[in-house]
Write a structure and sequence with these properties.
about 80 residues, mainly alpha, 3 helices, elongated
Length: about 80
């Protein structure tokens, strides 16, 4: 394989990774706007209509948001939505 081909492939891979990171960051920012118990309960209801494979990324982001919120508040909460429902 020629050097130029390897270089092009590396640039393409980096550009694809950058695009994926930007999309992930935008999704995380959008999901962070669901803050109240009611908003999170509604979001959880919507997510439950889809398969775990379809919602894996969303659930991971929400989990990380919950962990960060619990860490900031210093109190224990239960459940995916971070509320004691």
């Amino acid at each position: 394989m020629q050097f130029t081909t390897k270089l092009r492939d590396a640039r393409t891979a980096l550009a694809n990774r950058r695009t994926a990171r930007v999309a992930h960051r935008r999704l995380a920012d959008e999901l962070a706007s669901f803050r109240t118990t009611a908003e999170r309960a509604e979001l959880d209801q919507l997510i439950s209509r889809h398969s775990p494979e379809e919602t894996e990324v969303i659930r991971e982001i929400l989990y990380h948001h919950d962990v960060a919120r619990q860490h900031r508040s210093g109190r224990q909460t239960a459940g995916l939505g971070g509320y004691l429902g």
